[in-house]
Write a structure and sequence with these properties.
heterodimer; A: 132 residues; mainly beta; 5-stranded mixed β-sheet; 4-stranded antiparallel β-sheet; 45% strand; elongated; B: 141 residues; 1 helix; 35% strand
C-alpha cells in the first residue's frame, strides 16, 4: 500500500457574484487556509499565475477584499491542444472581526501563494492574570 | 476564446484517467503511480513546438522534477504545507502531498532543448519538436 498521500486535482470554484461582470473573463475563488496564532491570524490564498504587482488588497467596511489578476496577454496567440483547467482572475472576500487590527495587515506573495498576516488588536491578545 | 476551455468531455476524461490511475497504480509497491491526475496541465501549440502550462502554486522550485523521454514527460514532486504548532486551523482548503504524473505527447520531442520555467506558481514547459519528427519537403526530380 502506498504510504504517501497522492495529490488530487481540486476543481476551481467559480465566483458567484451578485454583480454581473462586464468583461469576458472568468472569476475564480482562490483556495484558502486560515489559521490563528497567539498574536495574529494568517490567511493563505493560492492564485497560480498571478504576479505580485497584479494583486489588490483592500479593506473596506470591515471586509478584506483580495483580487488577483492574471496576465491574459501571455495566452494570446496560443492554440489549445488539450486543456484540463480554466484560467481567469481570482477574487475572494473575508469579513474581519473586531479583533483584527485593520491598519497593520501585511501581505507577501511567493510562487503564486499570497500570505496575509492579520495582527490582533492589543485587547484581543491573550494575557496572563496574576493572582493578588 | 480563452474563457471557453471547459469541455463536457473533460469530466469523462478525468474519470477515465482516475480509473486508469487506479488500475495502473502499483498498490502493492511502496511508490506513487506515475499516472496521477495532479497537477492539472494545459497543452498549447506554439508554431511547431508544444507549450505545457501546469498550475503548481507554492512549491519549492528545487522539489520539482521533470523528466523527458521520447514522447513522454514526467512531472513529479512534493507539495508541503505546514502550520505553526501553536496555531489553531480555522479553514483548510489547500492540499498537500506528493505528485507524479506522466504526460504523453502526440509528437517526438527533443529532450536536450526542453526549457522548464517556474514562476508565480506556474510551471511552463517548452517542448520543442524533434528535428527528425518534422515533416520534410522532398524535391521531385
Amino acid at each position: 500500500m502506498a504510504s504517501t498521500q497522492e495529490l488530487q486535482v481540486q476543481k476551481k470554484r467559480e465566483l458567484e457574484n451578485k454583480e454581473e461582470s462586464t468583461i469576458p473573463v472568468r472569476l475564480f475563488v482562490p483556495v484558502a487556509d486560515i489559521y490563528e496564532a497567539e498574536h495574529d491570524l494568517t490567511i493563505i490564498l493560492e492564485m497560480p499565475g498571478v504576479e505580485k504587482r497584479n494583486v489588490d488588497i483592500l479593506v473596506e467596511d470591515g471586509v478584506l477584499n483580495v483580487e488577483g489578476r492574471l496576465d491574459l496577454t501571455k495566452y494570446q496567440g496560443l492554440q489549445p491542444l488539450y486543456t484540463e483547467y480554466n484560467i481567469g482572475h481570482y477574487a475572494r472576500s473575508f469579513r474581519l472581526s473586531s479583533k483584527i487590527d485593520q491598519n497593520k495587515i501585511a501581505a507577501e506573495m511567493k510562487d503564486g501563494v499570497l500570505s496575509l498576516k492579520l495582527p490582533k488588536v492589543e485587547e484581543a491578545k491573550p494575557r496572563s492574570i496574576q493572582i493578588q | 476564446m480563452i474563457a471557453a476551455f471547459a469541455d463536457p468531455f473533460d469530466a469523462l476524461f478525468n474519470l477515465q484517467r482516475a480509473l486508469d490511475g487506479r488500475l495502473m497504480s502499483g498498490w502493492l509497491e511502496d511508490q506513487t503511480a506515475s499516472q496521477g491526475p495532479f497537477p492539472p496541465i494545459n497543452v498549447f501549440q506554439q508554431g511547431e513546438d508544444i507549450l505545457a502550462i501546469i498550475e503548481l502554486p507554492g512549491i519549492e522550485k528545487s522539489s520539482i522534477q521533470v523528466q523527458a523521454k521520447e514522447k513522454t514527460i514526467r512531472i513529479a514532486g512534493k507539495k508541503a504545507i505546514s502550520f505553526p504548532e501553536s496555531a489553531s486551523v480555522h479553514r483548510r482548503e489547500r492540499m498537500s502531498g506528493e505528485f507524479d504524473r506522466t504526460l504523453s505527447l502526440p509528437i517526438q520531442i527533443d529532450p536536450d532543448r526542453i526549457k522548464a520555467e517556474y514562476r508565480d506558481g506556474i510551471l511552463a514547459l517548452h517542448l520543442p519538436r524533434a528535428e527528425r519528427d518534422k515533416p520534410r519537403t522532398i524535391n521531385v526530380s
